[in-house]
Specification:
The chain is an alpha+beta fold. It has three domains: about 40 residues, no CATH class; about 30 residues; about 100 residues, Alpha-Beta Plaits. The protein is built from five helices and six strands. The protein has a four-stranded mixed β-sheet, with helices on one face. A two-stranded antiparallel sheet has the order 2-3. Helix 3 crosses helix 4. The longest helix is centred in the N-terminal third of the chain and has 26 residues. The chain is elongated and about 70 Å long. The two termini are about 40 Å apart.
Length: about 180
Amino acid sequence: MTRSNRTLNRLLLALVGLLFIAVAAWVANRGYPVLDVPAVPVPEGDALWIVAASALVVVILSLVWIFTRGRGRASAVITATDETGTVSIDARVAADLISHDLAALADVVSVSSTAFRTTGSATSAIALELRVVARRSADLRHLVDTVTRSVEQFDEVIESRIPVLLHVATGVRASFAHEQRVR
């Protein structure tokens, strides 16, 4: 859903960081010589302009990369407009309603949601991603059935059917979370 590769992003950030560290170490060593580093030859004439132009191209491509990431995220699941005004339902409302239904399950640690714009063949629509953090020994079939019922009830409340992506995860947070008890 993010249109970018996480591994590629991290690799590029690591390479740029290493380049900056190397340049900073070189500059610091020129000011306070600790190591005997050979002088870097400075290009002359046309070679200097080629280096400057390629650096400018890298900067422009980097800016394009930065400003085109993260599109598609939406804050509202549904927006309705009529003559009296506009009403929108936030994605967090969906998470709150669904987590209220899942509160009775001892296997659920937390529920969060994010809305995304999707492009289809006809029009652009909103899809909802639900992220449920569950304990390691959770009954996944029961959990998915409960989430399905909750989503169907949410669809009835908003009087619209929204595509939902369910992401069930476990992790450190689920390991250290306290057991939920119904009072």
